[in-house]
Design brief:
The structure is a single chain. The chain is an alpha+beta fold. It has three domains: about 25-190; about 220-295, no CATH class; about 345-410. Helix content is about 30%, strand content about 25%. It has twelve helices and 14 strands. The longest helix is centred in the middle third of the chain and has 22 residues, at about 145-170.
């Protein structure tokens, strides 16, 4: 044996369930370490966001936990998701302070990403999944010419945050996954506008005070140049107000029914808003607080003024000599139905045929001794039955309901 004293290996006692478990003291120490990193090293607004009564860690916060646990990453695995047919998305962005409108057509719906983090010393690892879609970017106004990169980067960030969260045992949802914004997130225009607006000292100055009021009529120029010229006229109107570079201070646009103007992202005029509003109202713009923009309604086509019609007195018409109406020939009097009791069956038939030409074949006439019977061969309509009632009553007969026939007594 050498003189070097060997350190005996620790013996792990099997648990009653034969499942390896971390001692409570060590688990408590690990949890306390995670909480201490959050408490002492993470900065609100940069490493985490407070929403309501919950705290959501951002990517920079998970990066500190990643470093504290000496983790490494394997190459992320991306899985593209596709539409069945190409879809079009239209968005606006600024290029050298000029507002551009872009339209893309793509079958890419989004990306799913899987990230694996591992502690090389212990071999322990954890996975995380994240997804980002093109519709999400479009609906949250995060579209840009770099949309493809933003899809993959957002999916990877969400997956990486989850992997680190799963490894350290917090299993929390990240700020990026919740869609929360914070001042440190420079990719969010909404956060920049909120930050500028909260700092009342950072006010975008007016080019001059008071602003100039353009001497030309905005509505007349719109009607003269057509509705498609309204954006050009907006720039010209703002220029004449004193804004030499309107694109740096405002955003504007129009659709089929209205045009609009609003402050550019990060622009806050403070009390100067009242002066801008006064001049824009002269042009016909109205400010809508809910939308935070001025709106201008497309003017209706002016109705053509009707010239007064001078009524000329017409010469009196010469009335033609009145013609006497032609004398109406007297209409032949209707023959009265034959009356009186019949003398035989043929007499009954003749009287019916004379009163109702063409209807004799619809009835049957027979001699029943004390009376003549008139019955129906077919179903008769109401008018025919009424006429039969008339002629038979003239012959002294009547309808017998229980026998469903007419009887003419001798």
């Amino acid at each position: 044996m050498s003189g070097v004293e060997e350190t005996p290996l620790a013996v792990i006692e099997p648990t009653p369930l034969a499942i390896p478990r971390m001692p409570i003291a060590e688990l408590r120490e690990l949890t306390a370490y995670v909480n201490e990193v959050k408490k002492t090293l993470m900065i609100e607004g940069k490493d985490y966001v407070i929403d309501g009564n919950r705290q959501y860690t951002a990517r920079s916060g998970f990066a500190k936990l990643h470093q504290g646990f000496t983790l490494s990453d394997e190459a992320p695995i991306f899985t593209p998701i596709y539409y069945d047919e190409p879809q079009e998305f239209t968005f606006k962005h600024r290029l050298r302070r000029e507002l551009k409108t872009e339209t893309i057509s793509t079958k890419v719906y989004g990306f799913e990403c899987i990230v694996k983090v591992i502690n090389l010393e212990s071999g322990r690892f954890a996975h995380g999944e994240g997804v980002c879609t093109l519709e999400e970017l479009h609906q949250t106004n995060n579209m840009s010419p770099k949309w493809y990169h933003r899809l993959k980067a957002t999916a990877k960030t969400r997956a990486w945050n989850r992997a680190v969260s799963n490894y350290v045992g917090s299993a929390e949802v990240s700020a990026e996954e919740m869609g929360l914004t914070y001042p440190g997130d420079r990719g969010s225009r909404a956060s920049e506008r909120k930050e500028v607006k909260s700092e009342k000292t950072d006010i975008y100055p007016l080019p001059k005070t008071p602003l100039d009021t353009p001497t030309w009529d905005f509505t007349q120029q719109v009607e003269a140049g057509g509705w498609d010229s309204v954006e050009t006229l907006i720039v010209a109107y703002l220029f004449d107000m004193g804004f030499q570079s309107a694109e740096s201070a405002f955003e504007y646009g129009h659709d089929v029914a209205k045009a609009w103007i609003r402050n550019a992202p990060g622009v806050y005029f403070g009390d100067g808003m009242k002066e801008i509003d006064t001049v824009l109202q002269i042009a016909g713009f109205q400010y809508h607080g809910g939308e935070k923009r001025w709106r201008y309604k497309k003017p209706e086509k002016p109705s053509e003024e009707k010239k007064p019609v001078v009524k000329k007195e017409k010469p009196p018409k010469k009335e033609p000599p009145k013609k006497e109406p032609p004398k109406k020939e007297p209409e032949p009097e209707e023959e009265a139905p034959p009356t009186g009791p019949p003398g035989s069956v043929d007499d009954v038939r003749e009287k019916i045929a004379a009163f109702m030409p063409g209807h004799l074949e619809m009835v049957v006439v027979s001699d029943k001794g004390d009376y003549y019977r008139v019955g129906r061969k077919i179903t008769l309509d109401k008018d025919v039955e009424n006429h039969l009632d008339v002629i038979i009553s003239e012959m002294g007969g009547e309808w017998v309901n229980d026998k469903n026939e007419w009887r003419i007594f001798k």
